[in-house]
Design a protein that fits this description.
This protein is of the alpha/beta class. The protein has a six-stranded mixed beta sheet. Helices cover about 25% and strands about 30% of the residues. Strand 4 and strand 5 form a beta hairpin.
């Protein structure tokens, strides 16, 4: 589904990844733990393939949910119209949905449980409701890969849990691969399949219990890192690093 070969990415003078290779299978839920901005760093070297072809800007095989950005309360756009923008996200201009497209929009709105408010002004909805609509927008093109950049940022704990469970359910039902960038793995432990932990230009992959360990992270960072659990949560102690 997704394959990385010799990928190098940099943020200014800082190397985030150096020559990393890996893959994500259809229907797999992968959490990427990395530095701030890891969700939108341009590729410096290497190749990324999605569904057998090189990934590109506006790729219809990829659905993207950015960090939550509040909409203008006076935005003259209904929720259903916001979702419809995802039908042809790889093309310029505002789409004019035909009957078939309207049916697709209705299906993804139902899939995320937003039917009761999708006809209302999108800018007047709560943060959690808006994120459901952005998720529906990302799903409207029937992508094979769903990329999410800290989708629960600024949401309260209740809406975080609701949104994460929804993403996991949609991934299972649609066999959509998920790559979700996060800084705290704990809310995701019950739903993820694998972790990609980025540090020191390298990447460790596997189940949380295989990756978020003192010996593994100490090797990644090149300095001592302590990992401990308390109350069912994982904590990483090494300066400002945390899981």
């Amino acid at each position: 589904m997704v394959r990385l070969e010799g990928v190098t990415v940099s943020l200014g003078r800082r190397t985030i990844l150096q020559g990393v290779s890996g893959s994500v299978r259809a229907g797999e839920f992968v959490v990427v733990l990395g530095p701030n901005g890891a969700g939108n760093i341009p590729l410096a070297a290497g190749t990324v393939q999605v569904a057998g072809h090189p990934a590109r800007r506006g790729d219809p095989c990829i659905g993207y949910v950015p960090q939550r950005r509040p909409l203008d309360p006076d935005l003259p756009l209904r929720g259903v119209e916001l979702v419809a923008l995802g039908l042809d996200g790889h093309r310029w201009g505002i789409p004019v949905p035909d009957a078939r497209d309207r049916e697709r929009v209705a299906r993804v709105i139902a899939a995320v449980g937003a039917e009761s408010y999708a006809d209302g002004p999108a800018g007047r909805l709560s943060g959690g409701e808006q994120q459901r609509l952005f998720l529906a927008q990302a799903l409207a093109g029937d992508p094979q890969l769903l990329l999410l950049d800290e989708p629960t940022a600024s949401l309260d704990l209740h809406h975080q849990r609701e949104l994460l469970d929804l993403i996991a359910r949609v991934s299972r039902e649609r066999r959509t691969a998920v790559m979700l960038v996060a800084h705290d793995v704990n809310p995701l432990l019950s739903i993820l399949d694998r972790v990609w932990y980025l540090a020191g230009g390298r990447c460790a992959t596997g189940r949380p219990e295989e990756v978020i360990r003192s010996d593994v992270l100490s090797r990644l960072y090149g300095s001592p890192v302590d990992v401990f659990s308390a109350g069912g949560r994982l904590f990483v102690s090494a300066g400002d690093r945390h899981a």
